[in-house]
């Protein structure tokens, strides 16, 4: 080995040197991942997919599992969930934990949402998470979610995904009359209160009159779901891009789709816990809600969810008290599984190239996610970062080290800072995306595959 290759850190393209069988593995993995994306456009849908697949892999719901079971599902109110593989019933070393979030930016229907204007019916939305509002106009949109009637009956809604389903859309101003609009800053081109979806135009019983179109829509909703306008107040209805995830490029090396932040990490973590095999540590995968709005809520990272989950698991196998749970969590290791920004040749100036993630160069470890002086960030310890490198080397994981954006430009936080609160070690790891938070995010298939391998190596070797 020459001196250069011995001493210099060099980023390496993860496609380089891939041989027959590996190529198939990379592409097969992505085909399975696309099925997850198509079935999991909301956090509730993701929970159902994750739990159903776990049941098929021998996991049992914690309340119905016997003491002999080692693979557990710990569900949380349908909006977040956890999977655990118990390998060490002393819990002295806690858990190897991977945390991903299953919510994604979108438009939520407001509680009072339906109105009529110019003989057309619309629904008002309140956007969820960080979006560029102008990206959400003139694209086909689907409606997913639940409506709960006052008697507790829950109605599932999913319109716009099946062949032949209608879709919804937010309209934009025609360019011919948009001289004033296009001179506005991007944040004002479309404003929050303009993100209203078009939902119909036929008046009730084909007879125009006051609120006749709105009444026509309510009649449709009453026939289909048995609801009235008040029932929409107790609903979680989410407007998301319609349609399936797709391959991108002549060589199909990328995947495009909605909500890859962070369902790409949720899926790779899920597969990693299924495929980890024999491990000495206890394995825990957490799939969380509300990351995109600050990790709030009962299923968010800024809660005592980890303590609730760990205590439920430990109580199953041994006498545990508050102190033993706290100690087990403190002695744990955590990977915050989340995406980072890939270098886009059109927008290179926001990323410092030595510490920017390159598409197709493997998964990314981010020691520190903050910006402008590392504010609000977890900075992974040198010791823990070294143990991650060692685990990745054992399984041939292709990875790169990166930070999200130039120091003074901006940045993004992940949930690791909420978990280091409990005293454990944590680091961020996940693939890079292009067009993050847009209706059509882009990931590299080889990065997705190495993210899966990275999470599996963390479970096995840390
Ligand atoms: Mn994320
Ligand atoms: Mn995000």
Structure description:
The chain has about 450 residues and is α/β, with parallel strands linked by helices. The protein has two domains: about 10-105 and about 260-460, 3-Layer(aba) Sandwich (Aminopeptidase), CATH 3.40.630; about 105-240, Aminopeptidase i, Domain 2. About 30% of the residues lie in helices and about 25% in strands. It contains twelve helices and 20 strands. The chain has helices spanning about 5, 20-40, 45-55, 180, 185-190, 210-225, 260-275, 305-315, 320-330, 380-395, 415-420, 445-460; strands at about 60, 70-75, 80-85, 95-100, 105-115, 120-130, 140-150, 155-160, 195-200, 235-240, 245-250, 255, 280-290, 335, 340, 365, 400, 425-430, 430-435, 440-445. It has a nine-stranded mixed sheet, with helices on both faces. It has a six-stranded antiparallel sheet with strand order 8-7-10-5-6-9, covered by helices on one side. A five-stranded mixed sheet has the order 11-12-20-19-15. Strand 19 and strand 20 (about 440-445) form a beta hairpin. The radius of gyration is 23 Å and the shape is globular. The two termini are about 30 Å apart. About 45% of the residues are buried. One manganese (II) ion binds near residues 261, 292 and 437.
């Amino acid at each position: 080995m020459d001196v250069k290759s011995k001493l210099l850190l060099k980023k390496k393209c993860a496609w380089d040197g891939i041989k027959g069988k590996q190529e198939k593995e990379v592409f097969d993995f992505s085909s399975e991942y696309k099925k997850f994306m198509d079935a999991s456009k909301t956090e509730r849908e993701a929970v159902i997919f994750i739990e159903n697949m776990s049941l098929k892999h021998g996991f049992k719901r914690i309340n119905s599992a016997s003491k002999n079971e080692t693979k557990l599902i710990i569900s949380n109110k349908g909006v977040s969930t956890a999977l655990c593989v118990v390998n060490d019933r002393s819990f002295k070393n806690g858990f190897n934990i991977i945390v991903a979030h299953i919510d994604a930016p979108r438009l939520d229907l407001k509680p009072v949402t339906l109105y009529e204007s110019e003989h057309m019916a619309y629904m008002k939305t309140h956007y969820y998470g960080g979006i560029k509002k102008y990206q959400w106009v003139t694209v086909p949109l689907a409606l997913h979610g639940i409506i709960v009637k006052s008697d507790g009956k829950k109605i599932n809604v999913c319109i716009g995904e099946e062949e032949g389903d209608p879709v919804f859309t937010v309209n934009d101003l025609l360019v011919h009359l948009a001289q004033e609009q296009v001179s506005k800053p991007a944040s004002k081109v479309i404003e929050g209160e303009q993100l209203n979806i078009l939902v119909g135009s036929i008046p009730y019983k084909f007879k125009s009159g006051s609120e006749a179109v709105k009444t026509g829509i309510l009649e449709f909703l009453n026939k289909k779901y048995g609801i009235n306008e008040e029932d929409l107040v107790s609903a979680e209805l989410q407007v998301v891009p319609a349609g399936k995830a797709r391959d991108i490029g002549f060589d199909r090396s990328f995947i495009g789709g909605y909500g890859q932040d962070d369902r790409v990490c949720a899926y790779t973590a899920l597969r990693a816990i299924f495929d980890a095999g024999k491990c000495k540590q206890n394995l825990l995968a957490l799939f969380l809600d509300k990351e995109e709005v600050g990790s709030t809520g009962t299923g968010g990272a800024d809660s005592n969810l980890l303590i609730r989950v760990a205590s439920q698991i430990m109580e199953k196998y041994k006498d545990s008290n508050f102190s033993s749970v706290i100690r087990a969590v403190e002695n744990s290791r955590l990977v915050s599984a989340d995406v980072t920004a890939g270098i886009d040749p059109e927008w290179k100036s926001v990323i410092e190239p030595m510490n920017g993630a390159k598409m197709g160069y493997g998964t990314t470890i981010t020691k520190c996610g903050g910006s402008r002086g590392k504010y609000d960030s977890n900075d992974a310890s040198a010791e823990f970062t070294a143990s991650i490198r060692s685990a990745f080397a054992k399984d041939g994981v292709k990875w790169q080290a990166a930070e999200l954006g130039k120091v003074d430009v901006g940045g993004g936080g992940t949930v690791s800072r909420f978990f280091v609160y409990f005293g454990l070690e944590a680091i961020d790891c996940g693939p890079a995306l292009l067009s993050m938070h847009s209706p059509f995010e882009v990931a590299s298939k080889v990065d997705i595959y190495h993210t899966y391998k990275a999470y599996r190596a963390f479970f096995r070797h840390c």
